[in-house]
Structure formats: C-alpha cells, structure tokens
Specification:
The chain is an alpha+beta fold. The protein has three domains: 79 residues, 2-Layer Sandwich (Phosphorylase Kinase, domain 1); 211 residues, Transferase(Phosphotransferase), domain 1 (Orthogonal Bundle); 107 residues, Sandwich (Immunoglobulin-like). The protein is 26% helix and 20% strand. A hairpin with a 3-residue loop joins strand 11 and strand 12. The radius of gyration is 22 Å and the shape is globular. The two termini are 45 Å apart.
Length: 420
C-alpha cells in the first residue's frame, strides 16, 4: 500500500500513525511508522515480544500487532488493528468513568498485565493513550514491549511515569503497576496523578512526580478499599507497591461497585462517566463506538521526547513552555542560586543555596549529543554528577515546595553554551 492511500492520524517525535484499508479483506488498520531502521538485535527482541504476546491472544484484551516490517524507504513500521477511541479521548469527552466501569476496566487491565508479565513481557509505558476501545466497547491494551521504546525513546506523559523510570530509565513489572495506578487515578478523576498548573514545563511536572504523592481521590461513592489500592500502586518506593498485577486484579474484582453483576474480562464497557450522567450519555457513547475511521484517535503512537540540540543545549525556563508568555507560578520571591560547577574530569561537583529551607530539588543534566537526565536530590544542596571526560555539559537546578516551582540559572562546563 502506497503512502498516498493512507490517512494520517497523527505525528510525534518517535512515530507517525496512519490509517488504511486492506484491499483484500476490506478491514481498516493502523500503521505506526518509526523514523528509522532497527538493528538486528532490536528486531530479535521485538520478535520475542510478539511471540510472547501471541500466547495472550485468547485474553482478547491485548492489541497484538499483525505485522512488523521495514518499509521500502528504510523506516520501520508496525501494523495493527484500528480501534475507535482511547481512554484519553473518552475521559476528555465525557469526564471520569463510573465506579463500576473503573473497576471493570481496572480488573481487565490488571489481568492483562499479570498474563503479560507471566509471559515475560513488560508494557513499559502505560498511558490513557494506549488503553483503547474496539467498536464493540471492549477495552484492549496496546503498545506492549521495550524493544522499540529503547530504539526510539520517548514518553507521552510524565504524569504517568514511575519515578524510577524518570530517574534511571527503569521499566519493569513494578513500573507497570505504577502505570496501572495512574490509569485508575485518571479514570476516576479525569486527570493524571500529578497536579498541573497553566504554563507548567515538563521539568516542573517531572519534579512533582519525584517529590510527592498524588492527592487523595475525592469522589463521592468511592468504595472503601479503592482509594488505598490506587495510592499503593502510586507509591514512590517500588517495594511498597502491590506484589504483582494478579493481586491487584483480585482486589479490584472483590471491590463492590454499583452494578448488580460485574462484567467479565474484556466485556464491552458502553456506559461511560459518573452514574448520574449515564442516561444522558448512553446514546452518544454508542454512536461514538461506531464512528468511521476518520474519527479514530491515535493508538498510543504520538509520543513526546525531551530532545537536546546537538551543539546548543537548551533548558527551558520554569515559567512556561517555549513560546508562551504565561508568567511563572510564584507567590513569594524565592532565590535559587547554583554555584559554578566544579569540573573533576570524570565527574562535576554541583552545589546551590536557596532562601527557602523546605524545598525538594532536582538536577537537570544536559550533555552535548546525549539525552537529558533528571536527578532527584531530595532536600540536599549538593550533588555529584558523573560525566564523560571532554564532553560539554549544562546544568540547572529546579525546586518545588509542593505548590510552586523555582529554577536556578543554567551553568555549563568546558565551554558549553547554555540557553535558558
């Protein structure tokens, strides 16, 4: 199939998503196209993941790619079933799900994760964008696996990442449990576990993930055990999360909801939103479930990655995203001063001081031609950063008191040009 026969659905730094129609079967499909080739090792890892996912096909809740191949122009592409909408679109349109829908969806996702983990596959990046719904209303989880994530790095939403994923790139069964907790929080509240303010930068949101727990879920009719379960899944310490996804599925299945009979795994979820709004939304929801391919949202393919410029390292100001004129979220002036970095060859010693004593700090490290890294420092005011000898680096310290965010001047070593 030629590119001009495909309908663009969306584009991000890591992949482009297209929709098409199979000429032989007449079935619509989604094609997720990555910008480059994959090496032999990555292809081998991907084939192992797909083989393991094939063993989960009877679950009916895993969106298993139908084909993965290199295109004639060298780009790599994954072909999969085209679903009608994502959890992100659903909640964005109708608001939080009903309690029973959250329990049913959560049990289905937890059971799916348990089976995948047993088969040796980690999801690695659970967000509302890759929880999809078929035209029937049945939920599926898309975008399993680490092979392509490692070759084409990028994360869609910091608010759904486990702290250890942000700090050192860890992606395992316990980070999947955190992602499940973030999805349940989103389905119950309509927002991510991280409090967001207008004009927030990715770095500010990152620091909030690293410095505090999600606010308790304030919702009428919340079953007694559901809030604590979600909170345990979102624990900063991976060891404090539930032991595995099987336990989570069991607890969700045993939690009383609002329906007389719980839905079986993979059953359609057609009544979206809080109980008081169901009758008003039911007709429209069924209409949405049958929309044409042109109204389909992205299936977890548009991802946003923190990118460094190859010769000019840019650390955006805390006040707003690039190009925005929104003022910084500051009430009382708090001064955060980063001392000149001390270069020791294989490491750089950083130190800073602040006029506020009760802050949590993070150090942002940007090296030329390297991905930017965030190091959470708790309440310390000094940090040693391991570096590569001879490479230019820029550093900035960010801080939060849990409400407001602050940022130091960006400083570099070895002649690096640091742009705020």
């Amino acid at each position: 199939m030629e590119d001009d026969e495909l309908v663009p659905l969306g584009e991000g730094p890591s992949a482009t998503v297209l929709a098409g129609m199979d000429e032989m079967t007449g079935e619509a499909f989604a094609l997720k196209v990555y910008p480059g080739r994959v090496d032999r090792r990555t292809r081998g890892e991907l084939e192992k993941e797909l083989s393991a996912l094939d063993s989960l096909s009877e679950l009916g809740t895993v969106l298993i790619p139908a084909e993965a191949k290199e295109l004639p122009d060298g780009r790599f592409a994954v072909r999969m079933e085209l679903c009608t909408q994502s959890l992100a679109e659903l909640v964005g349109t109708f608001g939080p799900l009903s309690i029973q829908d959250v329990l049913s969806l959560g049990e289905a996702l937890a059971t799916t994760l348990a089976a995948a983990h047993q088969a040796g596959v980690v999801h690695g990046g659970m967000t509302p964008g890759n929880v999809l719904f078929r035209a029937s209303g049945a939920p599926v989880m898309a975008d399993f696996g680490l092979a392509l994530r490692q070759s084409f790095p990028g994360d869609s939403d910091v608010g759904f990442l486990a702290p250890e994923t942000i700090t050192d790139g860890t992606r395992d069964e316990r980070t999947d449990l955190y992602g499940l907790g973030a999805l349940l929080y989103f389905a119950l509240t309509g927002r991510s576990p991280v409090r967001e303010e207008p004009g927030d930068t990715v770095d500010e949101l990152t620091l909030r993930v690293l410095s505090g727990q999600a606010a308790p879920i304030d919702r009428p009719g919340l079953p007694a055990g559901l809030g604590p379960l979600v909170a345990s899944l979102l624990a900063r310490d991976p060891g404090a999360r539930p032991i595995d996804a099987t336990l989570v599925a069991t607890r969700l299945g045993a939690t009383p909801g609002t329906a007389a009979t719980p839905r079986p795994l993979g059953a359609p979820i057609l009544d979206y939103g809080p109980e008081h709004a169901k009758s008003r939304r039911r007709g429209k929801t069924r209409l949405i479930a049958g929309v044409a391919a042109g109204a389909v949202v992205l299936a977890a393919a548009v991802v946003f990655v923190l990118q460094n410029r190859p010769r000019e390292l840019s650390v955006p100001p805390a006040s707003a995203d690039a190009g925005s004129s929104a003022p910084a979220t500051t009430v009382n002036p708090v001064r955060l001063d980063l001392a000149d970095p001390v270069d020791h060859g294989k490491y750089v010693q950083l130190s800073w001081r602040s006029t506020e004593s009760t802050l949590h700090y993070a150090v942002i490290v940007a090296g030329v031609d390297l991905p930017r890294k965030t190091h959470y420092v708790e309440s310390g005011t000094a940090y040693r950063v391991d570096v590569e000898p001879g490479r230019q680096y820029c550093f900035v310290v960010q801080a939060t008191d849990g409400v407001h965010s602050y940022e130091s001047e960006s400083k570099g070593v070895r002649g690096a040009r640091c742009v705020r």
